[in-house]
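Entry 14: structure prediction run for Tryptophan--tRNA ligase. Input pasted below.
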Amino acid sequence: METIFSGIQPSGTLTLGNYLGALKQFVELQDDYECYFCIVDEHAITVPQERLKLRQNIRSLAALYLASGINPDKATLFIQSEVPAHTQLGWMLQSIGYVGELERMTQYKDKSQGKDAVSTALLTYPALMAADILLYQSNLVPVGDDQKQHMELTRDLAGRFNNRFNDIFTIPEIRIPKVGARIMSLQDPTKKMSKSDENEKGFISMLDEPKKIEKKIKSAVTDSEGIVKYDKVNKPGVSNLLTIYSSCTGESIEAIEAKYEDKGYGDFKQGVADAVIAVLKPIQDRYLELINSDILDDILDNGAAKANVTANKTVAKAKKAMGLGRVR
Ligand code: TYM
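Run finished. Output tokens:
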């Protein structure tokens, strides 16, 4: 069976973009692959975090993974910092990465822009991400469109290590969903939907109440044409809503266009809101049951134990290949 790895940062409540671009695919893939899903808390600290809030976000993300349908009997769910091999291999990969290639990462440029104090880890972040993936000899990495560049670097680092030392890493492929790989902001549909958006109306949080979801979708920016048609360049707002609708219901964009052919944006937006609520409400109900339960800790303990076994084997191979430590 082939292996999958993916991770999500516990840096605030997830958005509908995180769900449609990532989590939704994870749930679909867990039946056919050996899956490792990670709460990447060490990635989150590349920008300042409040201690107690981070702890809360880690737990909340674990509950959201499960509430979305990740089944711990099929997939391994764990917290990155509970598996020390991630930072160990991350360091080894930093030693073969180049400052120049890291500085070219658009996510680094975006996150460091205009800041006086940028952490070293924000720059070296992609080496840790590569370690996450390579530790499990992953074949496939399901992510949203914004992770493409990091994935290319992961493949480069794996190939470089294999060539320079020993052929120990599987070179992973990226998997991006056909619809929903890049959900855009509801207020500025040329920008990615992001939980760090200052305008709260721009994103839907996975835990927003149905009334709030409806309100945000009703106030989404569209255009004055009044025609429900997919045209990313000239109608980015409507196209984004069509993508959300299609991704939530599984209906094709063409079928949705036909359904709203003689109707205005009011009806269409109501349809989008209903589709989003139908997906998120059951997840929210399960989340509330899980968030304070002990099951969560048992699942994370088991996940870390299993991940440690696999990850430590790879670190041992990498150390040997690089000549670190002693012969035993
Ligand atoms: P993060 O935490 O920013 O996002 C988690 C996942 O959600 C996807 N995503 C989106 N998809 C569609 N539309 C959007 N608007 C949207 N916003 C976010 C992201 O593409 C991602 O799949 N570097 C990663 C975390 C990570 C990782 C890994 C991922 C660390 N190690 C190893 C895969 C494998 C990140 O910051 O994702």
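Notes: The beta strands are 3-8, 34-39, 75-79, 140-142, 173-175. Will compare against the previous run tomorrow.
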